[in-house]
Amino acid sequence: MKKVTILDIAKELNITFSTVARALNDHPAISKSTKEAVKKTAEKLGYSKNKIASSLRSGKSNIIGVLVPSLDVSFFSSVVHGIESIMNQHGYSILLYQSQESYKKEDKGIETLLNSRVDGIITSFAIDREDSTIFEEIISKNIPLTFFDRALYQLNAPSVTIDDYKGGYMATEHLIQSGYKKIVHITETRDLSIFKERLKGYLDALKAYNIPVNEDLILKGNLSLNFGKDCVKELTSRGIDFDAIFTLEDFTAMGVIQQLKSQQIRIPEEVGVIGFANEAFGSLVTPSLSTIDQQTHLMGQETAQLFLTMLKEGSFYKMAPQRIKLDPLLIVRESSKGPQL
Amino acid sequence: MKKVTILDIAKELNITFSTVARALNDHPAISKSTKEAVKKTAEKLGYSKNKIASSLRSGKSNIIGVLVPSLDVSFFSSVVHGIESIMNQHGYSILLYQSQESYKKEDKGIETLLNSRVDGIITSFAIDREDSTIFEEIISKNIPLTFFDRALYQLNAPSVTIDDYKGGYMATEHLIQSGYKKIVHITETRDLSIFKERLKGYLDALKAYNIPVNEDLILKGNLSLNFGKDCVKELTSRGIDFDAIFTLEDFTAMGVIQQLKSQQIRIPEEVGVIGFANEAFGSLVTPSLSTIDQQTHLMGQETAQLFLTMLKEGSFYKMAPQRIKLDPLLIVRESSKGPQL
């Protein structure tokens, strides 16, 4: 049976929507007779008010705040899907806030979420964050907090991350095993442990295969598509000899691919490319982009489970926090098929 | 000057983070002497509590709820950026909720946002929504509501949309002017006015150029990358003669491109392709995808402005609602360069 709406009542009485709405809300501007007519018709048609239930009874809101840098990065939106799938099963709703990689916006977001009475916060913090004060405050107020991907290990909040060191190692080892020898690594200037770990993995893989580290091949900047383009321009204009590029994440890799193509440098024959994060566009571009998958959906699910365990335990910060580290997966596509092709 | 944190106090006193945090919150488990030591050290170091301000004073929360199908569709995330940019300038924060194109999740989202005391709701509703009850209720409660992209015109809430009819017309006319004659249109089964308008634009453009409508060239289904692939398979396996495809949105167009490529059908020489929505991946794929841009950032800004005007006026639903219709823009890339190339 179709649900009876305010519009149905308005139609039946040949009056406007807002008259019916106001009559139902006992608005003073509406005459008594109209109110009665509306009431009668509403009863006759079987109209029921209050679809929007008020769950203000308990102290718990059953709402969890999730704070991420940006939801148009598929890494984050995919983790959020994972978090939502578990949380919804357990009767929780998710409210989202984007920091746009700004700790100032993030502070505002935490304030907003707490004022919205969320039961707790799950976050991957902004890249420019330099101190942990606001997260210390959340903990000191005994509000549940869980980190994913980017965690502050000095705080005793639980976290789910991937093994970024291993990811960096795998990406580099894959390029070496595909036959590349002069491997560039593009990394971040800003101080985030996930990127430092990927760099460490790169260095150790070179070492393991007896390839000397060449400082000219390590480029630092701020991750973006344009930065990837700039790196290729710099490498070629300085005449630096290289045959592969491993970038800290996929958007930078995309810039690398576009610039290599625009300079008629063939991928993967002349230069192999691998990114990190398995963004959605990687399988759609030509050549398709090899990358490291971070098991985003699983990360979201594990994060939600960890958070729910915390909620169940009640006292959130008494014990040593659980730290889950997931294994990265190597995704081989066309861009790193080796120079022999 | 670096902000003093709980960790600094803990370090100074050589006690744990959680002891300091609990001492600062006057936790009964912490001894009086520890509490005093913490308090003294906090004062000495210049520690200030309460970074998280409580804005519970006024009835207004200065938080706006934005409810969209999915933020990993760049159309929606880009509109949301536009909304945020204006709202932040005016001191409002945005909380986001994803319906995943399910009206049931959307109902839950509205409940969640209202329980979180948002000052109002901005939305583009779920594709499977069949009645307007919940939005009628928002209006009848006199809570500000503004639609973007997908609007319910029978309700007196304001809206910002693009001229989808014009977009459909422009896309089709562009294919005709590029030299294509047997133009397929892939559209939606589900009943959403934006898609019907795009179809109408397609039909009228054919008419305007004296191209007879061929029902075999109009395919209906549920938008997705795989649906795009299936359409190409169906067209080719049924031996239907076509030289261009205009899809209702870009993900479907991406499926079309992938399937055409896998069947060695050359784009744009044998088949031209144009999508709709200007998703981020469109410029990254090969061939790059022609599309219709929906001025998403402007749409977000206009939506925010409309909403702020509503807030200022105070009584939200007394007058006829403002309806803004933006012009779509044609984006020509490689996929529709014409059969002559």
Describe this structure in words.
Two copies of one chain form a homodimer. By secondary structure, chain A is an alpha/beta fold. Helices cover 41% and strands 15% of the residues of chain A. Chain A has a six-stranded parallel sheet, with helices on both faces. A four-stranded parallel sheet of chain A has the order 7-6-8-9, sandwiched between helices. A two-stranded antiparallel ribbon of chain A has the order 10-12. In chain A, helix 6 links the parallel strand 3 and strand 4. Chain A is elongated. About 2% of the residues of chain A have low confidence. Chains A and B meet through helix 2, helix 4, strand 2, helix 5 and helix 6 of A and helix 2, helix 4, strand 2, helix 5 and helix 6 of B.
Helix-strand blueprint:
The structure is a homodimer of 341-residue chains.
Chain A: H1 6-13, H2 17-24, H3 32-45, E1 63-68, H4 74-89, E2 93-98, H5 103-115, E3 120-123, H6 133-140, E4 145-148, E5 159-162, H7 164-177, E6 183-188, H8 193-208, E7 218-221, H9 225-237, E8 244-247, H10 250-262, E9 272-274, E10 291-293, H11 296-313, E11 323-326, E12 329-331
